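[Meeting: bench + compute handoff]

Bench side (C.D.) handed over the final construct sequence. Compute side (W.E.) agreed to return the predicted structure before the next meeting so the bench team could plan truncations. Sequence as handed over:
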Amino acid sequence: MLKKVSVTIILLVICLAADAQVVFSSLEDAWKYADVHNITIRTSQQEVERALYAKRQSYSALLPQVNATGSYTDNIALQTTLIPGQIFGGPPGSYKTLQFGEQFVYAGGIAAQMNILNLQNWYNARIAQETEELNKATLANNKKSVYQQVATQFYAYLLMQEAYRLATQTASIADSVAQSVSNKFKEGTVSQGNVDIARLNFERAQQGQVSARYQMLTAQNSLKSLLGFSVKDSLTINASLTASLPVEPTASFQEDPSVLLALSQQKISLSQYRSANAAFAPTINILYNYATQRFDNTFEPFSGVSGVAGWFPSQYWSLQASIPLFASGGRLFQSRKNRIAWNESVEQYENAQKQSEINDENIRLNYQKATAVLSKSKNVMDLSFDNYTHISYRYESGIESIETRLNAFKDYIDYQNQYLNSLSDLLVQLYQVKIRQQSF
């Protein structure tokens, strides 16, 4: 029995560990995860939802307002009124005391009101609708920004993984060369300076290893932060750098979120300007009211249906018009302020369109340049390694000097760093192209 319980506990622990581990096989996997877990995107999604309810609330102001009322009054002591006695045939100067009314009063009614013409309400509803569109554009723009941050850390991890691989390979060769030069030094065939250069190359290769390893871990932690992980959560990037590079740069770009954001802001500014002008327009309301009352000296709220104590109904409807004539000039100044804001938003939208077109063209050009430069950098690095290998063979044959061999290896390390810099530039341009091909 104890054995079965232990096995069950172990299986549960394994399952929990498996659930906690997240594996990304591509940048697109990380983006999909960010859509659900990134705090900036989640907050923007909630703002869109709030704007939806604000829009519905604004449109509800266009509907008629209907109110029902009901009341019950218990006149515990009716007020006494003095009536001149001669009205009832009494002597002049005499008075009679009378109490008017009955003890219980029941009342009910319904009132309805609707704005037939109120331009400001219509423009407020339109502004609420456009604000919802603005929040959607803000969500798309925030997604674009988060995607860039995620891509930066994702590719930084892959870049440092490649740097670590090359540094490990180089360190292995540098160690072998350093040992060989050290043995030659003991034999008296090379100088101490040659030993120092060999050791220097080995230390540089190890330095690259250490730097790449820690930068890889830092990129992984930065990615965790963007995706809502804790530092203890398991995150594995199981992506291949070579598989991540292909992209079709000529594919059409999607609508730029920054342009959509500028367009939404322009629409809101225009509606606000029109709403300010609507303050000069008249408003027309229609009202309907129905009320009824019943009086009784006995507490019988549900009696009197057959007319024992009758109800006294009243009803009316009215049409009300309000024409604004003068309000100290505040409306005029507000209208002019809103017009200036609208003109600014038009210019910003037009500028955003032009800037987006230029940015898109630069993204394509920079990607093409980075691809060509990386190809050349890799060829140079490979040729440098071939050259080092060839010189090593000639050195072993006694044709080349140890200085030539060490300098060739140093050149290989330098060209390797150039290759990594070119690869880094390509990865930046790569995710810029991918992001512009995304539909937010």
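W.E. noted at the follow-up: The domain at 21-63+118-281+329-436 is CATH 1.20.1600.10 (Outer membrane efflux proteins (OEP)). C.D. will use this when planning the next construct.
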